[in-house]
Amino acid sequence: MKDGNKSMNAEVIAVYPNKVKISVDDLSKFVSTDEQVEKLKVGSYLEISDDDNHKLIAIIESYSIVIDEKKPSERSYIIEANPLGIIEENEFSRGGDFLTIPPTKVLPAKYEDINAIFNSRIKEKERFCFSKLAQNKKIETPVNGNRFFNKHFAIVGSTGSGKSHTVAKILQEAISKKEGQYEGLNNSHIVLFDIHGEYKDAFPECNYVEASNLTLPYWLLNEAELEELFLDTGDRNNYNQSSILRRTIIENKQKHNPGEKIHFGTPTKFDITEVYNCLYNFQNETTDYRDNLCIKIENEEKQCSKIEEKYLHFFKKQYTFEPRKTSKIKGGIYADGTLDKFIDRFENKIFKKRLNFLFGDGSRDSSFEDTMKQFVGYKIDNSSSDQNITIIDLGGVPFEVLSITVSLITRILFEFGFYYKKYFDGKEIICETPLLLVYEEAHKYVPKSELAKFRASKNAIERVAKEGRKYGVTLGIISQRPSEISETIFSQCNTFLAMRLTNPDDQNYVRRLMPDSMGNMTDTLPALKTGEALLIGESIEIPCIVKIDECDEYKPSSNDIKYIEIWQEQWKDVDFTKIVEEWKK
Ligand SMILES: Nc1ncnc2c1ncn2[C@@H]1O[C@H](COP(=O)(O)OP(=O)(O)OP(=O)(O)O)[C@@H](O)[C@H]1O
Ligand SMILES: [Mg+2]
After folding, report:
1. Would 580 be classed as within a structural domain?
2. What integer best gives the mean pLDDT of the chain?
3. Claim to verify: residue 231 and residue 203 sit in the same structural domain
């Protein structure tokens, strides 16, 4: 290229802390002789060496043509590359400040060197692999499995970019990995919140929980969840509703758990039908005009000595009261019509067929232990068997209770991890059953929005994001709209898989996660192919674009409706009555 070194085709012409400029005379000769290395592209790896035998690996960021004005027919090429790290004795380490100036040689990186970047530093025991380098499918890009699962991770991408497929692949790998020879299940524990019912096909052996077989006891709801469920935040009489609801539930919990210290959100049993009876009676009661404790039940006057006795009496059944015909009988303090809407809503909820999983007899009578077992895959009776993965299909859960359903299950699982650790505290702090909670379409439960309807699930998941790691409870957050998810959650994630993203706000969001020197890798986000992802974070040596391995046998079911094919079929009759019946349930 220059005088004195005619054989040199490519030469480093500038070195900056985070950039190397290379001039190439003849691109057709600047190719790898290594058959296992694909042709050079933006994103390919180069190796730059100095006289001290150090090898710097850099990734091509851009390429341009230089036209010499004096000799317009001659051209040379400038390649700009970002240094990634050094390879020494076949081991890669990050950082590029070991190269002495001037660098002497630059070549396309060899297969074994690219392989060393991703594979040289991971111990076999920690290795967890579900993808290959997008530029070279022969190179595996494993993550450090301990780091990947120990801290929260996120998978983001526009619709159809391959998020669900990626989730399925990662979880399939996790539940099939075994150390040594043993029969049966490994010790992985995964709970997947599946909003579209698409994962059953990917895990035919899973513990499948859906609205029809879910048992989620209402008596485990905490204060915020109970209020969210029953109170109307927009109602002017909210304070009245809130105070009567609190008092009635506390009194009922006291009735069923005598001697215990109770408050509104204590997770102890109570009877929701009794609470309803009581509310109904308060709504309709009449009393003696001088004495609130003298209740005018039809044909039976009931004199209570204190208010607690009135509650106990009201729990029993719904009474008919004497009408307010004379001035000696007056309406009770809550019987002024202000509770009507609230009690209607209460009744509607607790007797709704679709909410049977929450208010049915099974939920009332279920134990805390069985509820917990149901979600962590341990068998409850002999009809079921233990499972590594529990899929909670939220498809049949009505929208109005989605947030509290997710919140309650999340809290139960967090408490499981929390008390498991506490239980061992006396001896040794360990977590024998680390849990992973995966949320599909997470923007639906943990949005940036401060609206009350999201408060319960947001609080519960944010708590896991902040404290879960210490107790062996990790989050996997999946979303089409990263920019719409609570910052608290994302700031706690340590590994990101960013798939194709078309929305500029979302792209910017991911750009902020990248180290400055590699920021322009995110420019490829809108152009990623289905199944490709930018893998960033603590669990991988350097950020890179990977292709997620395809699920071999079982895949999540796609919800795509084959419109044009169905439309071509003959006109179909529809059973509207059935649809309406389903709706009313
Ligand atoms: N790694 C992959 N290898 C091969 N095919 C893939 C891969 N990832 C996804 N696909 C295919 O691409 C299609 C869309 O994938 P997927 O359903 O996972 O997208 P998604 O991001 O979850 O979409 P949505 O946001 O709508 O749920 C599927 O048909 C799937 O089989
Ligand atoms: Mg999906």
Report:
1. no
2. 86
3. no
Domain that holds residue 62: 10-121
Taking the centre of ligand 2 as the mean of its atom positions, its distance from the CA of residue 254, in whole angstroms, is 45
Ion ligand 2: residues, CB < 5 A: 163-164
Residue 20 lies in a domain: yes
Query: What pLDDT is recorded for position 559?
Result: 62
For atom 16 of ligand 1, the residue with the nearest CA is 162
CB environment 368-384: b (16+ within 10 A), e (fewer): eeebbbbbbbbeeeeee
Would you say how long the chain is, in residues? 585
d(Cα 1, Cα 101) in Å, to the nearest integer? 19
| Smallest-distance ligand from the CA of 502 | 1
452 and 561 assigned to the same domain: yes
pLDDT at 82: 87
Determine the average pLDDT of the residues in 235-252.
86
Residue nearest to atom 10 of ligand 1 (CA): 162
Q: How many domains does the chain have?
A: 3
d(CA 290, CA 292): 7
Give the tens place of pLDDT for each residue, 54-107: 788 998 988 888 887 777 777 788 999 988 888 888 888 887 666 667 777 888
Q: For residue range 133-184, list pLDDT tens digits in order.
A: 998 889 999 999 999 999 999 999 999 999 999 999 999 999 988 888 888 8
Region 391-409 average pLDDT: 91
Task: Please say which residue of 350, 378, 408 terminates a domain.
Answer: 350
Note whether 60 and 77 are within 8 A (CB): no
Give the binding-site residues of ligand 1, using a 6 Å CB cut-off: 157, 159-165, 480, 530-531, 548, 550, 555, 558
Instruction: Tell me if 582 is assigned to some domain.
Output: no
The Cα 448–Cα 540 span in angstroms is 28
Q: Which two tokens stand for residue 203?
A: 């895990």
- Protein residue closest via CA to atom 26 of ligand 1: 159
Residue 469 has pLDDT above 80, yes or no: yes
Euclidean distance between CA atoms 327 and 306, whole angstroms: 24
To test the pocket of ligand 1, the residue of 530, 545, 553, 561 to mutate (highest count of ligand atoms within 8 Å of its CB) is 530
CA 106 to centroid of ligand 2, rounded, Å: 43
Closest ligand 1 atom to the C-alpha of 532? 1
Residue minimizing CA distance to atom 1 of ligand 1: 531
Same domain? For 339 and 373 the reply is: no
Does one domain contain both 375 and 431? yes
Confidence band for 4, pLDDT divided at 50, 70 and 90? very low
